[in-house]
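Lab meeting prep.
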Amino acid sequence: QVQLVESGGGLVQPGGSLRLSCAASGFTFSSYYMSWVRQAPGKGLEWVSSITNDGSNTYYADSVKGRFTISRDNAKNTLYLQMNSLKSEDTAVYYCAKVEVVAGSEEYDYWGQGTQVTVSS
């Protein structure tokens, strides 16, 4: 069965860095786009970043552009999110999600359990 397991979250001071990982199993990882999505306390889901199946193209929300970097290692079936210059507003639970294309639209068909990122002094 499909499993996505995030790790790497924690407490960091403003301006600090964290690297999130998402270990994937149960599907052909290298065949699928992947995304990071976050949910801040009391707010809805916010798309953060996506990457194509071969890693050749990446996409970012304006709120994280220039600070976050998405990458993947298809040999290790692992997705990453390098987060630099963290701000308090980056505090959220971060989820990795597998992207499925349905009728021409991208949908998330599997999610990890999430990892908490807290940015605070």
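Slide two material, second protein:
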Amino acid sequence: QVKVVQSGGGQVQAGGSLKLSCTTFRVTFDDYAMGWFRHAPDKEREGVSCITWSGASTYYAASVVGRFTVSRDNAKNTLDLQMNSLKPEDTAMYYCAADPICDIKFPSAYDYWGQGTQVTVSS
């Protein structure tokens, strides 16, 4: 059974930084693009960022450009999301997900999902 396991997150004041990490089990990590999504209460799920299988290309939602950085290490099967200059509106449950195609517009297309990790940014 494929597993996607997340770590990181927590609570921080506005302007602070957090790092999320993700790894996969029982799947060939570098066969997949990896995406980050978030879901805040009373809002629709939002694509945050994705990175192609090789790491050569990355994509970001307009709301996080210049503040968030996605990276991956295929040798270690790890995916990271470094979040800087956090804002209260970044508060949400964050999920990483795996799919052959890097596209944050269609979260339902992603094959495998992590368990989610809470990020809370206080003003």
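Talking points for slide two:
The chain has a mean pLDDT of 95.
The longest strand covers residues 18-25.
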